[in-house]
Amino acid sequence: MIDTVKNAESTPDQEQPYKELGLKDDEYARVKEILGRRPTDAELAMYSVMWSEHCSYKSSKVHLKYFGDTTTDEMRAKMLAGIGENAGVVDIGDGWAVTFKVESHNHPSYVEPYQGAATGVGGIVRDVLAMGARPLAVMDPLRFGRPDAEDTRRVLPGIVAGVGGYGNCLGLPNIGGEVVFDESYQGNPLVNALCVGAMRVEDLHLAHASGTGNKVILYGARTGLDGIGGVSVLASETFDDTAGKRKKLPSVQVGDPFTEKVLIECSLELFAKGLVAGIQDLGGAGLSCATSELASAGDGGMRVHLDRVPLRAENMTPAEILSSESQERMCAVVEAHNVEAFMAVCAKWDVIATEIGEVTEGDRLVITFHDEVVVDVPPRTVAHEGPVYHRPIERPADQDDLRANTPDSLPRPAEEELLDLVKTMAASPNLASRKWVTQQYDRYVRGGTVLAQPSDGGMIRIDEETGRGVALSTDCNGRYTRLDPYEGAKLALAEAYRNVATTGATPVAVTNCLNFGSPEDPAVMWQFEQAVKGLADGCAELGIPVTGGNVSFYNQTGSTAILPTPVVGVLGVIDDVRRRIPTGIGAEAGETLLLLGETRDEFGGSEWAHHVHGHLGGLPPKVDLKREKLLGEVLVAGSRDGMISAAHDLSEGGLAQALVETCLIGEVGARVFPEGDLFTALFSESAGRVLVAVPRTEEQRFTDMCTARRLPWRKVGVVDPESQALEVQGLGEIPLDELREAWEGTLPALFG
Amino acid sequence: MRVGVVTFPGTLDDVDAQRAVRYADGEAVPLWHGDHDLQGVDAVIVPGGFSYGDYLRAGAIARFAPVMREVVEAANKGMPVLGICNGFQVLTEAHLLPGALTRNHKLHFVCRDQWLRVENTSTAWTTRYDRDAEILVPLKSGEGGYQADDDTLKQLEDEHRVVFRYVGENPNGSRNDIAGITNARGNVVGLMPHPEHAVDALTGPTDDGLGMFLSLLDTVVKA
């Protein structure tokens, strides 16, 4: 029997499985207080999923407020939509608005790597589409456990194939991302997915449901039993008694990229024809989320006829229909006189579209099922007024010991061992070429990709007439963040910022995906609070706003949390992509290699300490955001005046790794002459450094500019087009073939 | 020169093919899969993607699209037709070209810059190349392994109908390293790599692919 509001009123004491659905005693009590009665099954399903950590941000909300508090009007000037919308939107000039966001799909991807990763891509693409933008590119920051662990061999190939399988079939170029290995991700890989899209400024669509009489139209795929997760508790109770056993489908959603591609083209045609008054994608929490958010965003109420929803399974209950996370669905609010035209566009694309409800007077979200009311709630209480927790915070007991255990006592290599170390590090799983992964991704589709992996940042052209485009990078070093979450978050920001500047673009906005352990662990909450503050303070210092983000908690195995991993994405703007700076050297005859920035003896959390000694301790490298900003300005100026022929950011693995990569990508050799202690010069991970190649004719002009602007620089070598080796003065040389074998051999050897 | 570019649901590289036509000073005419109408174009490109999701078998459903009936008829009368990647798969399914494309031998989708040798420069799409020229264009496909029986292969080789051959390591297990072929008349060409992604060195590895679209211009002007 369907649990109606009438039934709930007459059976106030009926026991409900709210605990199994994840609601605490006091949360359940609050639902009852809001409604003045017990919730129906359908209402319980809605509240439990919408008040979950994932949807309600109940543990993070009080901290995330800090992003807003630290954003000045000046930083906000170019922001057209920010935190709270499906994705942040930035004005990039020439009448273009760009929207971008990164989201996690960690847990589903561990359970079912292919579909988990695939639907992670699908979800973020719909978020961008729901802003009215054409999705233009994706990036995927991925993190795995030990590369040689058996489970990594299950998880990594599946996730990579899922990212590729969905994104390739959707026709979106994959222009970058990360692949990081660390033991802490062993039982909890991180799958973050970023999408960037663009639209004309005047076409920005926000989720609104205003206008009594407007119709609510669900379009896209049918609704099934996939991705129902916890709500199956309700289903089994209902069905075990009456219909006997029923096959449960996996709680990980199953994606269909073809349907999504058609959905994108159909939606863009609907937007272009002005047929959409409000739009919302269906992602986590399915219709529960879409209806309550659309209704909350408008100024009226909403009535939804749940029995009209096209289904792909029989006998679905209202609770199941509301909670289903079936993919490739959108919900639009359409003015009554546009419904016919709306349906015609959907028919052209063979997209199923169904009028499931309308905007009403009043302020209630009323959902009926065969004319019986199964939900009658104030929508804001579902979507926005969930519980808020002030979780206990405590600096981890081991933090001081960890920081006291510096890398200073680790044995360092003798000079004659350094060349071998260059090769060893180039072949280490975290520094080795990502080609095995990225060659499973289409980076060319749509013809706008100007830079993609292995460049420091991805770059796409937005405007074919003017050449205006954007660059993107995502970064985070979880080891740095573990050693100091405040500085570590700033370092992640600094690196993403630097990577974008290294392409020649000017950084303008920030998004994030904050992956942490359990919020119920005070030590984790301390990491979280520190990381949020570090990132927000860093953004204020750089003068660029955080436009959106995502929080993923409970990333841990037993009581062991992952390394705190605040992945930071930076968006940059370039007025003409033709002046982008490539990563590989050798494009011009006769280039000088300059190292911008300062090198210190900094090995805390370094790749060398990790790979060679299995050590994590001490302090991460110092971060100086004023310096990063200056460095960015110099790079952009150099690009604008044609003074830079290649550039590569220094990060994990230091100068040695940057040299290896820039030589191998450019397919030419170089002679370098680092100064001081060679181990430090080659492997230190000091922040704020970029290796640039300048044509000899521009060397004087460029170094004069650096000197005038007080940016430290040093000549560290020359490109040698005749040589097929990397020569380090005083140490000898390594043939590029040998380096390539080391750099490119690792991942194929591990994953086939 | 008016060149039709077919769009099926799930076609992805139609915008790229249209751009390539424009770069060769042609007019790109979008052709919708559901229409029995070629709109009087001089040539047709069936671009890459995943037509109808390619769920049954790559290209297997697309060959039954209304627009394909017109394409087949026109091709049989001599109209230049180019199938790229999924388009090549569609042309083999439609029997405009012999053989079939199967899963890559290593079972992974492969996206990489691929060297090709141009071995037939007398087709409607390859006259601008020097014989045995090597060109670098993107290859991106999961089902790019060219298969045909021994007799068909022999015929293709004997009649010099292998237009493009992979240089270096075979990326997908194609028999005889075949990357692209033509029909007996030389007006229909299909290939797995993507010349339309190599029309500008800014966004592709090279502009080596532009030659195919310029070749078409010559063909159409001559006709």
UniProtKB/TrEMBL annotation, chain A:
<feature type="domain" description="PurM-like N-terminal">
    <location>
        <begin position="456"/>
        <end position="574"/>
    </location>
</feature>
<feature type="compositionally biased region" description="Basic and acidic residues">
    <location>
        <begin position="390"/>
        <end position="403"/>
    </location>
</feature>
<dbReference type="InterPro" id="IPR041609">
    <property type="entry name" value="PurL_linker"/>
</dbReference>
<dbReference type="Pfam" id="PF18072">
    <property type="entry name" value="FGAR-AT_linker"/>
</dbReference>
<feature type="domain" description="PurM-like C-terminal">
    <location>
        <begin position="588"/>
        <end position="723"/>
    </location>
</feature>
<keyword id="KW-0436">Ligase</keyword>
<comment type="pathway">
    <text>Purine metabolism; IMP biosynthesis via de novo pathway; 5-amino-1-(5-phospho-D-ribosyl)imidazole from N(2)-formyl-N(1)-(5-phospho-D-ribosyl)glycinamide: step 1/2.</text>
</comment>
<feature type="binding site">
    <location>
        <position position="549"/>
    </location>
    <ligand>
        <name>ATP</name>
    </ligand>
</feature>
<feature type="binding site">
    <location>
        <position position="281"/>
    </location>
    <ligand>
        <name>Mg(2+) 2</name>
    </ligand>
</feature>
<feature type="domain" description="PurM-like C-terminal">
    <location>
        <begin position="212"/>
        <end position="368"/>
    </location>
</feature>
<feature type="active site" description="Proton acceptor">
    <location>
        <position position="105"/>
    </location>
</feature>
<feature type="binding site">
    <location>
        <position position="512"/>
    </location>
    <ligand>
        <name>ATP</name>
    </ligand>
</feature>
<feature type="binding site">
    <location>
        <position position="103"/>
    </location>
    <ligand>
        <name>Mg(2+) 1</name>
    </ligand>
</feature>
<keyword id="KW-0479">Metal-binding</keyword>
<feature type="binding site">
    <location>
        <position position="57"/>
    </location>
    <ligand>
        <name>ATP</name>
    </ligand>
</feature>
<feature type="binding site">
    <location>
        <position position="127"/>
    </location>
    <ligand>
        <name>Mg(2+) 2</name>
    </ligand>
</feature>
<dbReference type="GO" id="GO:0000287">
    <property type="term" value="F:magnesium ion binding"/>
</dbReference>
<protein>
    <recommendedName>
        <fullName>Phosphoribosylformylglycinamidine synthase subunit PurL</fullName>
        <ecNumber>6.3.5.3</ecNumber>
    </recommendedName>
</protein>
<feature type="binding site">
    <location>
        <position position="126"/>
    </location>
    <ligand>
        <name>substrate</name>
    </ligand>
</feature>
<feature type="region of interest" description="Disordered">
    <location>
        <begin position="390"/>
        <end position="411"/>
    </location>
</feature>
<feature type="binding site">
    <location>
        <begin position="325"/>
        <end position="327"/>
    </location>
    <ligand>
        <name>substrate</name>
    </ligand>
</feature>
<feature type="binding site">
    <location>
        <position position="253"/>
    </location>
    <ligand>
        <name>substrate</name>
    </ligand>
</feature>
TrEMBL record, chain B:
<feature type="active site">
    <location>
        <position position="196"/>
    </location>
</feature>
<keyword id="KW-0378">Hydrolase</keyword>
<keyword id="KW-0315">Glutamine amidotransferase</keyword>
<comment type="function">
    <text>Part of the phosphoribosylformylglycinamidine synthase complex involved in the purines biosynthetic pathway. Catalyzes the ATP-dependent conversion of formylglycinamide ribonucleotide (FGAR) and glutamine to yield formylglycinamidine ribonucleotide (FGAM) and glutamate. The FGAM synthase complex is composed of three subunits. PurQ produces an ammonia molecule by converting glutamine to glutamate. PurL transfers the ammonia molecule to FGAR to form FGAM in an ATP-dependent manner.</text>
</comment>
<feature type="active site" description="Nucleophile">
    <location>
        <position position="85"/>
    </location>
</feature>
<feature type="active site">
    <location>
        <position position="194"/>
    </location>
</feature>
<comment type="subunit">
    <text>Part of the FGAM synthase complex composed of 1 PurL, 1 PurQ and 2 PurS subunits.</text>
</comment>
<keyword id="KW-0658">Purine biosynthesis</keyword>
<dbReference type="GO" id="GO:0004642">
    <property type="term" value="F:phosphoribosylformylglycinamidine synthase activity"/>
</dbReference>
<dbReference type="GO" id="GO:0006189">
    <property type="term" value="P:'de novo' IMP biosynthetic process"/>
</dbReference>
<dbReference type="GO" id="GO:0004359">
    <property type="term" value="F:glutaminase activity"/>
</dbReference>
<comment type="pathway">
    <text>Purine metabolism; IMP biosynthesis via de novo pathway; 5-amino-1-(5-phospho-D-ribosyl)imidazole from N(2)-formyl-N(1)-(5-phospho-D-ribosyl)glycinamide: step 1/2.</text>
</comment>
<dbReference type="GO" id="GO:0005737">
    <property type="term" value="C:cytoplasm"/>
</dbReference>
<dbReference type="InterPro" id="IPR029062">
    <property type="entry name" value="Class_I_gatase-like"/>
</dbReference>
<keyword id="KW-0436">Ligase</keyword>
<keyword id="KW-0963">Cytoplasm</keyword>
<keyword id="KW-0547">Nucleotide-binding</keyword>
<protein>
    <recommendedName>
        <fullName>Phosphoribosylformylglycinamidine synthase subunit PurQ</fullName>
        <ecNumber>6.3.5.3</ecNumber>
        <ecNumber>3.5.1.2</ecNumber>
    </recommendedName>
</protein>
<dbReference type="GO" id="GO:0005524">
    <property type="term" value="F:ATP binding"/>
</dbReference>
<dbReference type="InterPro" id="IPR010075">
    <property type="entry name" value="PRibForGlyAmidine_synth_PurQ"/>
</dbReference>
<dbReference type="Pfam" id="PF13507">
    <property type="entry name" value="GATase_5"/>
</dbReference>
<keyword id="KW-0067">ATP-binding</keyword>
